[in-house]
Amino acid sequence: MLDAVSAATLLGSAATVAKDAKSAGIDSLPVTENELSCMKQAIDLMRPAGVIDKTGGPFGAVIVRDGQILSAEGNSVLRDNDPTGHAEVNAIRAACKKVGSPHLTGATMFTSCECCPMCYATFYWAQIDKVYYAASWQDYKQYFDDGAINKDMCKPIAVRKIHMVQIMQKEAQNVWAEYGRLSDKKSY
To answer: pTM for this one?
Structure first.
């Protein structure tokens, strides 16, 4: 539970966000005290991950569904030597394990920073309904330029930074055809 000073500070921040959203043409941005508390927890995870324990960059994420926190994780890229160890991906992995499903329908993600393309795709596949974020790509682009990845992905395949070459398409199509014939196949 938030103390009065923290709640006032967070609610003041929410008022600023709502004002900024309105000036950007967004009609309203209702933010509850509970949502602010979840975002505060995500932001609190930034410091240990990026500054104190240095397990990865300063990123934190919290997933909530039906008023229950399913997971709260920080970035672990450096600790685990895993480029996918983003706070958001770590939180999704933990939440999915907890609920016993690859889907988090009805869940909300609170993340300390605007998500990178990988994390966005992970939100999509996990079927997360809503994402709140604090810092934008512009706020930390001198350290992590997620916008550059996004721009590169929007380019035609032939001119992307990572060279992609398609080979053995027919063989892969054969496996897809076999998968398509399965009566017990599962979509996710």
So the answer is: 0.81
